[in-house]
Specification:
Layout (H helix, E strand, L loop, with lengths): L5 H8 L1 H6 L23 E5 L4 H9 L11 E6 L5 H10 L5 E3 L9 H6 L7 E3 L6 H16 L2 H6 L16 E5 L3 H10 L5 E6 L10 E4 L3 H4 L5 E4 L13 H6 L5 E4 L8 H9 L5 E4 L19 E3 L7 H21 L14
Parallel strand pairs: 1-2, 2-3, 3-4, 5-6, 5-8, 6-7, 8-9, 9-10, 10-11
């Protein structure tokens, strides 16, 4: 979403529709919480910066008492990604807050907040990581097929193509950067296509469902045989422009690049050059940096680049999933039990 504050407005506007679709997607990591590293004192919960009946109801469903921010506040549900400075001010002014629920899977928008508490002090942060895996993974596979089938240039053409072109996803080598909930769901969705899969992650621990798991330093070795490269990693200082001119040069000219993570993972000017020079079949980008992408950015002019304006997880898809995450974590917060989606402030995700 280009404007995360829309979640509150959209949830209120489309509450009936959202409740009707509660069972459309599942949170694959629900019920898989873990105990926070430090004890959290239960108490009243504030919903900020703009509360909605929908998410307030999610707190109440977990047994929580929603109240205005004051000295008795112990939990905080934060519904905006763009107001990190305001959140930091609130936490500074209310050091008794012991738990903060953030709204999105990616928490790079709160880097300044997490840096403040990287030493392990302050509240326990939880995010929605893993909750939106199904809709985002669905979008990733959609973009992969759209690029391979050359839907971008075909849809833009004003005439009938003289030659039938396009590649099938079946039997391809798919490399996924990242090993979180989205990557796990992508692997599940890819099973019918009989693809070979490589997962690139920070550790060498095998990723369930992947044919091969390698560490990040082995990414260059995987690229020359990659037909589809899907980026599903968190945005950190280590992953910034992980895919640049050198990495793009290692991909085959028939390869597709899909980014449903964060725009910062890709050197976008290098990508535009690779597309312009025919060194890549195409790219499917749900995310860019900045968002929205500048109107004169060269990627807009590339017919083989499909940009979907951060719509992999629309408010109607994410609202019930976030509500479920809030309810589960409120229960854990009040009972001193496990929390789902705990953020490592030192690592930034």
């Amino acid at each position: 979403m280009t404007d995360p504050d829309r979640m509150t407005a959209s949830a209120t506007f489309a509450a009936d529709a959202v409740f009707a679709l509660t069972d459309q997607h599942r949170d694959p990591v629900a019920g898989q919480g873990r105990q926070p590293a430090r004890a959290v004192e239960p108490g009243r919960i504030a919903v900020l910066p703009t509360a909605s009946e929908f998410f307030t109801a999610a707190v109440v469903a977990g047994g929580g008492e929603v109240a205005p921010l004051d000295a008795d506040t112990r939990g905080l549900v934060w519904l905006s990604e763009k107001r990190a400075d305001e959140l930091l001010e609130i936490l500074d002014a209310h050091p008794a807050i012991g738990w903060v629920q953030l709204p999105w899977a990616g928490v790079d928008g709160f880097a300044s907040v997490l840096e403040r508490y990287a030493d392990g002090s302050g509240p326990v942060f939880t995010s929605a990581k893993g909750a939106y895996s199904e809709p985002v993974a669905e979008h990733a596979v959609t973009l992969a097929q759209a690029v391979l089938r050359e839907l971008g240039p075909k849809a833009r053409a004003a005439g009938w193509a003289p030659v039938r072109t396009g590649l099938s996803l079946y039997g391809r080598h798919v490399t996924i950067v990242g090993a979180g909930g989205i990557a796990a769901e992508i692997l599940r969705l890819l099973q019918p296509y009989r693809v070979r899969t490589t997962v690139v992650r920070r550790s060498a621990e095998p990723m369930p469902g992947a044919d091969r798991t390698v560490t990040t330093d082995a990414l260059p070795n995987a690229l020359p045989t990659t037909d589809v490269l899907i980026l599903a990693a968190a945005a950190t200082s280590e992953t910034r422009q992980l895919i640049g001119s050198e990495e793009l040069a290692l991909l085959p000219p028939t390869a597709a690049l899909v980014n449903i993570a964060r725009g910062a993972l890709v050197d976008q000017l290098a990508l535009a050059a690779a597309l312009r020079e025919g060194r890549l079949l195409g790219a499917g980008l749900d995310v860019t940096t900045p968002e929205p992408l500048e109107a004169d950015h060269p990627l807009w002019a590339e017919p083989r680049c499909i940009i979907t304006s951060h719509s992999a997880d629309t408010p109607e898809m994410t609202a019930p999933l976030l509500a479920g995450r809030i309810t589960e974590n409120v229960r854990g917060f009040l009972a001193g039990g496990p929390l789902v989606g705990i953020v490592d402030a030192a690592l930034g995700y």
